[in-house]
C-alpha cells in the first residue's frame, strides 16, 4: 500500500520531464519537416526556410531533435529506476518514523540502564510461570515488543486462569475469538490451557518468539517479573464494541457489505501474490494447472488465483448458505466445480470407513469426495469455523481443530510435487503455529505474509508453502498424523485427542533449539505489522514508553 503511494508520488516529476522532452522533440521535428516540405514545393522561390534547411543552423535543429529523442528515451528508462529507488528509500524512512510497537504498551517500567532488571530463566522450558493475583477469567492480551533496546525480539504476555471449571472458560476480551472452541483451541495450541497450579491462582505466562529459552537471547528477555501487562485500549469497552460490530457485520452482511468483503479478500490475495508470487503456477507441457480451494465462499482468493491462471481448472468446497455459509460472489464459475458441504463430515477421505452407529451424526458423514488421481498445483486452506454454522452442540469444543486438520491432511495428500499451499493461521506465537512451521519446512519452502491494511489489527496471517514434496517421508507422516488426530477428535474423547496432539517436553526443546532463531525471523514482520496497526486503531490511545 505504502510502496504504491510513494511510487506514484516520485514518478510524477519524472513523467513531467518525459512529457516535456516529448513536446520538445515534436516541435523540433515539426520545424525540420516544415522547412524541408517548403523547400521541395517551392524550389525556385527564394525562401528563408529553404535556405535555412541547408544552413549550419539546420544542423543545430537536427541536433535538438536528436537530444529531445535521447531525453525522451532516457526519461522512459529513468522513471521506473529512480522511482523504485526513491520509493524504497521513502518506505524505509516512513516505516522507521511510524509509531513503534512498544508505544502501545502502558504500565511497563522503563528498561533504562539505571533501573534494576531480572532476567527470566526457564531451563529451556517454554513457559515462565509467575504467581499473580487471583483471576476468574482467562484474558488473552495482545502483542507487545519488549526486550533489549537494540533488539526487535518480541515478548508475548498472556494472563491466564487455572480455574477451568466444568470445562467452561469465560472471556473478558473476545476481540478475535469467534467462538468458545476457537479460544480453547488456541490456548491448547500455546500449551498453557491445561496448566497445573494452586486453585484460584493465575499464571503470568511470558512467551518470546522462541518461547523464552534464555540461551538463545541472553538479556533480550530482561523484564521485571512483577510488571502488569496492560495494553492501553484493549481493556477499553470501545475495543470490545469495535470487534463486536465487525463480527456482527461478518455474520449477517447486507449485499453491500458482502460485496465489500469479497473485494477485500481479492485485495488481500493480490497483495499476497505481489509479495510471494504464490499464484504463479508452472506445470509441465500439456498439463492443465489445477487449484483446490477449501471453504471457497465468497470466492475472493479463488478469483485472484483464476485471474493469474486463465486456463486452470478449479475444485472448490464451501459450506451451504442454508447451513450458515457465505454466499458465493464469483461472477464466473465456468471453470469451477463447487461442492457445497460440511468439510468436517468428510469421514471417508479422512480414513474413517467404519462409523460408530452410536455417533450423533452417524448418518451424516459423507463418502469420499476426492479420488487418488485428483492432484492440484495450488491448495488454499483458509477455512474457519463460522459462528453462523448450524451444528450439533457436541462439536463446539473441537470444531476448529477438526476443520484445520481436514484442510491440511487432504490438501497435502492431493498436492502435486512442487505445488503450493496457502494456509490461514492465527497467533503466530502459539505452539501450534511453531510446530506447523517446523513440520512444513522439512518438505517445502516456508514464507509468512500478513496484509499491511486489511485485517492488520488481527492476529491472522498466511503461511505460504512452496515447492512442496508430498512424497517426502515427513510429509506422508504429517498426513497420517493429521488424519489420526481428526478421527480422535471426531469419534473419540477430548482427552484422547489431547494425548495424541500434545508434544513431549523433549520434542519441544529440540524444535526450539533447531528452529527458534529461524522462527523469529519469520514471525517478526507479523508482530510488527499487527502492533503498528493496533497503535493506530480508533479505540486505542497510544502512550510513549521511555527506553532511555
From TrEMBL:
Alphabetized PROSITE patterns for the sequence: PROKAR_LIPOPROTEIN (PS51257)
The entry's keywords: Membrane, Signal, Transmembrane, Transmembrane helix
Cited Pfam families: FtsJ
Residues of the signal peptide: 1-21
InterPro entries associated with the record: RNA_MeTrfase_FtsJ_dom, SAM-dependent_MTases_sf
Domain Ribosomal RNA methyltransferase FtsJ: 271-466
Name of this chain's protein: Ribosomal RNA methyltransferase FtsJ domain-containing protein
Species, as recorded: Xylaria multiplex
Amino acid at each position: 500500500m505504502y510502496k504504491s503511494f510513494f511510487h506514484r508520488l516520485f514518478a510524477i516529476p519524472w513523467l513531467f520531464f518525459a512529457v516535456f522532452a516529448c513536446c520538445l522533440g515534436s516541435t523540433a521535428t515539426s520545424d525540420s519537416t516544415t522547412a524541408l516540405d517548403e523547400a521541395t514545393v517551392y524550389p525556385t522561390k527564394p525562401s528563408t526556410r529553404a535556405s535555412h534547411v541547408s544552413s549550419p543552423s539546420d544542423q543545430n535543429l537536427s541536433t535538438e531533435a536528436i537530444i529531445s529523442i535521447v531525453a525522451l528515451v532516457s526519461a522512459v528508462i529513468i522513471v521506473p529506476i529512480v522511482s523504485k529507488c526513491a520509493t524504497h528509500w521513502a518506505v524505509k524512512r516512513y516505516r522507521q518514523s511510524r509509531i513503534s510497537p512498544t508505544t502501545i504498551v502502558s504500565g511497563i517500567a522503563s528498561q533504562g540502564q539505571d533501573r534494576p532488571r531480572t532476567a527470566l530463566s526457564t531451563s529451556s522450558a517454554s513457559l515462565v510461570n509467575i504467581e499473580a493475583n487471583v483471576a476468574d477469567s482467562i484474558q488473552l492480551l495482545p502483542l507487545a515488543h519488549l526486550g533489549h533496546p537494540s533488539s526487535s525480539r518480541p515478548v508475548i504476555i498472556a494472563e491466564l486462569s487455572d480455574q477451568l471449571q466444568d470445562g467452561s472458560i469465560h472471556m473478558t476480551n473476545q476481540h478475535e475469538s469467534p467462538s468458545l472452541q476457537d479460544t480453547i483451541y488456541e490456548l491448547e495450541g500455546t500449551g498453557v490451557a491445561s496448566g497445573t497450579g494452586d486453585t484460584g491462582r493465575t499464571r503470568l505466562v511470558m512467551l518470546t518468539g522462541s518461547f523464552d529459552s534464555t540461551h538463545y537471547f541472553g538479556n533480550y528477555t530482561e523484564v521485571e517479573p512483577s510488571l502488569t501487562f496492560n495494553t492501553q485500549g484493549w481493556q477499553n469497552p470501545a475495543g470490545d464494541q469495535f470487534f463486536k460490530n465487525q463480527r456482527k457485520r461478518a455474520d449477517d452482511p447486507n449485499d453491500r457489505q458482502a460485496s465489500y468483503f469479497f473485494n477485500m479478500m481479492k485485495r488481500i490475495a493480490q497483495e499476497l501474490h505481489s509479495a510471494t508470487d504464490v499464484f504463479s503456477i508452472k506445470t509441465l507441457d500439456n498439463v492443465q494447472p489445477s487449484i483446490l480451494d477449501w471453504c471457497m465462499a465468497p470466492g475472493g482468493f479463488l478469483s485472484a488465483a483464476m485471474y493469474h491462471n486463465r486456463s486452470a481448472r478449479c475444485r472448490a468446497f464451501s459450506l451451504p448458505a442454508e447451513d450458515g455459509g457465505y454466499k458465493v460472489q464469483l461472477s464466473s464459475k465456468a471453470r469451477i466445480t463447487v461442492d457445497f458441504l460440511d468439510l468436517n463430515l468428510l469421514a471417508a477421505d479422512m480414513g474413517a470407513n467404519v462409523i460408530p452407529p452410536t455417533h450423533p451424526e452417524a448418518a451424516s458423514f459423507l463418502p469420499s469426495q476426492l479420488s487418488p488421481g485428483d492432484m492440484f498445483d495450488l491448495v488454499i486452506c483458509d477455512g474457519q469455523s463460522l459462528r453462523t454454522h448450524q451444528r450439533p452442540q457436541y462439536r463446539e469444543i473441537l470444531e476448529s481443530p477438526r476443520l484445520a486438520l481436514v484442510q491440511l491432511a487432504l490438501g497435502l495428500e492431493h498436492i502435486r510435487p512442487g505445488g503450493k499451499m496457502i494456509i490461514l493461521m492465527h497467533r503466530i506465537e502459539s505452539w501450534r503455529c511453531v510446530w506447523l512451521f517446523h513440520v512444513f519446512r522439512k518438505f517445502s519452502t516456508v514464507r509468512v505474509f500478513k496484509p499491511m491494511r486489511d485485517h492488520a489489527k488481527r492476529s491472522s496471517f498466511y503461511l505460504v508453502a512452496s515447492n512442496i514434496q508430498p512424497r517426502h517421508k515427513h510429509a506422508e507422516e504429517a498426513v497420517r498424523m493429521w488424519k489420526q488426530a481428526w478421527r480422535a477428535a471426531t469419534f473419540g474423547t477430548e482427552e484422547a485427542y489431547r494425548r495424541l496432539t500434545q508434544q513431549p517436553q523433549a520434542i519441544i526443546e529440540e524444535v526450539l533449539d533447531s528452529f527458534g532463531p529461524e522462527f523469529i525471523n519469520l514471525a517478526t514482520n507479523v508482530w510488527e505489522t499487527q502492533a503498528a496497526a493496533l497503535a493506530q486503531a480508533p479505540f486505542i490511545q497510544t502512550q510513549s514508553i521511555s527506553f532511555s
